[in-house]
């Protein structure tokens, strides 16, 4: 089930719960999908989360499903359909802890750091579980030869049915003890991890690596089992949201599943039970990071999941926006969750209608970005930064803030030349940098949030970032009435006055919501915290050029804890835009003057063409689009991609020169919520 057509065509894969008792209706629904929507690739969902597979007749249930999958596959071959198996769930495949037969092997279930035993999730390095899982996979592969086996995203150890941070069963504790060279216990690790410190960081990292290796071990065993029967069968991973907590496991596990076939991975990037529009930059950052980080030979598809698969929770418009964004990012396809897991699989008609109507748009969009490169400031994300805090985050706060501000940004990768583009860093990500990487960063251009700057000061880099940074106590925070920009903050387009809100929403797990900045003599104070009596409490944003000629900006807020009105306001939007351009010594490639317009910018390195995709995150439709571009983007030949995936000339365009570097562009096209506008600029 590989999208190996010479020319890309949007060709989604659709999970489908086939209810055997309704076989005639199910077959009719699948054929309706094929002929009315164009869907040709389907995965039958099994074993689901309860039923016969959890009891004494489990082996028989897998045999029956193998027969069913084979039958469906054969009947639909004449219709040009490919039928695979979606192994859902995966690590909860097997008996529940309280339902194991007395005379059967005692399967080891996951054990949490607090001693909690998961009722459903099983340990991947338990030999009996490996044998059981392998036998089920062998049965279905032998009977049905599915075109692909895709393992659902509970293929993880962390955050899995009552277990937060990996499996602390006796086997895992024994293996961990071997890795650290001494005997340890779950109780010792629980105490160490809750206390923190350098050894806790070291052990959390080693523990995460052990979890990754455990998942690779089982994937290798399952691949070997399938190779005995059908070595060409593709096996693939649905990336879990907790993949980085399990040691950045995505690439190694997907590679183990693939064997000698082309690796395939579905990257997560959606939100369940939510039709929220303005979280789009946040929920899609990690999938872009993963795509850029994974090897080039991987086939990468998007998690176009609408769970619970109805428009009561998730609109077809949001689904279209997610798929469109994945096409802009160069994804190879989509795992599109279009059907209901009921006896009326096509009851929700909005998703299939959208897929049919948008097929040519998705195809044309994906074709159009070929050869383009994403451009804009870089945002640092390190997948193992969680070892420094013990809690899990997958998106740096900068990604959501810059997205809301209309400032295009891209995850930093090692291929980015040091100092070539502004780098935005927040929180513990800075702790994952080596001393050499820190010096390289501080020799270039970087915008630090308060927590990242605080860590750098503790490491002795205060004189290179332009300020000493210390925690504010509760009384100091209460002294702050508001924040105001200073005359040095010259970036004031589309703003009025000098005052901004102050709100500290740091939770109990955060070190601080805001930090005290004590700037060095040459630092420039761009804004200040002041009391209601207008007395300065502390600078809130400073800029600085250090002795290495590095350009540094520091924001006093812990950005991860405060993405509120203190940050999201018009003055801050212009301040951050101005700082980004000062850091980079050039204009942003393209920037939205309007609020909550998410901007993706692309440039072609060979033909000089430019492209931008705009996603309105607000419920308010924009009557027109107001952009500011770098002079290199100036063009009298602007096109937009229509709903049929065809480029059309844009009329009613107005360019106005701002200064030597920037142009203001007005386009008389409305932009409604999550209905992307894609523009192309030609020389």
TrEMBL record:
Q: What is this protein called?
A: Glycoside hydrolase family 42 N-terminal domain-containing protein
To which species is this protein native? Cohnella soli
């Amino acid at each position: 089930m590989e999208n190996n057509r010479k020319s890309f065509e949007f060709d989604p894969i659709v999970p489908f719960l086939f209810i055997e008792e309704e076989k005639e209706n199910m077959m009719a629904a699948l054929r309706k999908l094929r002929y009315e929507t164009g869907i040709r690739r389907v995965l039958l969902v099994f074993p689901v989360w309860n039923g016969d597979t959890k009891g004494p007749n489990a082996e028989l249930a897998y045999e029956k499903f193998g027969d069913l999958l084979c039958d469906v596959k054969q009947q639909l071959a004449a219709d040009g359909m490919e039928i695979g198996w979606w192994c859902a769930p995966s690590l909860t495949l097997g008996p529940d802890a309280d339902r194991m037969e007395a005379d059967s092997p005692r399967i080891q279930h996951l054990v949490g750091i607090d001693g909690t035993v998961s009722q459903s999730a099983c340990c991947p390095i338990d030999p009996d579980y490996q044998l059981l899982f392998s036998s089920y996979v062998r049965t279905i592969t032998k009977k049905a030869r599915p075109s692909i086996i895709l393992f659902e995203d509970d293929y993880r150890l962390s955050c899995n049915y009552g277990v937060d941070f990996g499996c602390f069963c006796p086997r895992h504790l024994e293996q961990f003890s071997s890795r650290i060279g001494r005997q340890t216990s779950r109780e010792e690790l629980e105490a160490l991890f809750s206390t923190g410190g350098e050894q806790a960081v070291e052990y959390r990292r080693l523990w995460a690596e052990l979890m990754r290796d455990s998942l690779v071990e089982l994937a290798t065993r399952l691949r070997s089992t399938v190779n005995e029967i059908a070595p060409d069968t593709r096996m693939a991973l649905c990336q879990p949201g907790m993949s980085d907590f399990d040691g950045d496991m995505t690439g190694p596990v997907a590679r183990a599943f693939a064997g000698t076939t082309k690796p395939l991975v579905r990257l997560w990037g959606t939100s369940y039970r939510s039709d929220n529009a303005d979280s789009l930059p946040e929920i899609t950052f990690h999938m872009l990071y993963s795509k850029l980080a994974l090897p080039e030979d991987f086939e990468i598809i998007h998690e176009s999941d609408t769970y619970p698969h109805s428009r009561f929770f998730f609109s077809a418009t949001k689904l279209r926006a997610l798929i469109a964004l994945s096409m802009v990012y160069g994804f190879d396809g989509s795992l599109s969750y279009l059907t209901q897991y009921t006896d009326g699989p096509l009851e929700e008609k909005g998703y299939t209608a959208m897929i049919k109507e948008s097929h040519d748009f998705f195809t044309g969009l994906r074709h159009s970005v070929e050869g383009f490169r994403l451009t804009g400031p870089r945002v640092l994300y390190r997948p193992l930064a969680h070892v420094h805090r013990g809690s899990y985050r997958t998106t740096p706060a900068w990604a959501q803030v810059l997205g809301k501000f209309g400032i295009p940004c891209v995850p930093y990768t090692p291929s980015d030349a040091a100092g070539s583009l502004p780098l935005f860093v927040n929180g513990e990500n800075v702790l994952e940098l080596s001393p050499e990487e820190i010096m390289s960063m501080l020799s270039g251009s970087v915008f630090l949030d308060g927590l990242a700057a605080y860590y750098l000061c503790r490491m002795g880099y205060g004189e290179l970032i332009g300020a000493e940074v210390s925690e504010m106590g509760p009384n100091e925070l209460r002294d702050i009435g508001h924040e105001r920009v200073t005359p040095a903050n010259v970036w004031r387009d589309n703003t009025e006055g000098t005052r901004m809100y102050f709100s500290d929403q740091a939770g109990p797990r955060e070190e601080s919501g805001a930090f005290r900045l004590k700037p060095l003599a040459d630092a420039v104070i761009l804004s200040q915290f002041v009391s209601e009596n207008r007395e300065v409490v502390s600078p809130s944003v400073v800029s600085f050029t250090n002795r290495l000629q590095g350009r540094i900006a520091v924001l006093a807020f812990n950005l991860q804890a405060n993405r509120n009105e203190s940050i999201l306001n018009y003055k801050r939007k212009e301040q951050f835009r101005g700082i980004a351009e000062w850091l980079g010594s050039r204009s942003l490639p393209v920037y939205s003057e309007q609020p909550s317009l998410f901007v993706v910018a692309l440039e072609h390195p060979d033909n000089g063409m430019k492209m931008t995709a705009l996603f309105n995150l607000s419920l308010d439709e924009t009557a027109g689009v107001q952009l500011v571009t770098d002079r290199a983007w100036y063009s009298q030949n602007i096109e937009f991609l229509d709903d049929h995936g065809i480029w059309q000339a844009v009329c009613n365009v107005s360019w106005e020169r701002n200064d030597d570097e920037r142009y203001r562009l007005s386009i008389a096209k409305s932009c409604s919520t999550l209905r992307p506008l894609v523009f192309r600029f030609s020389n």
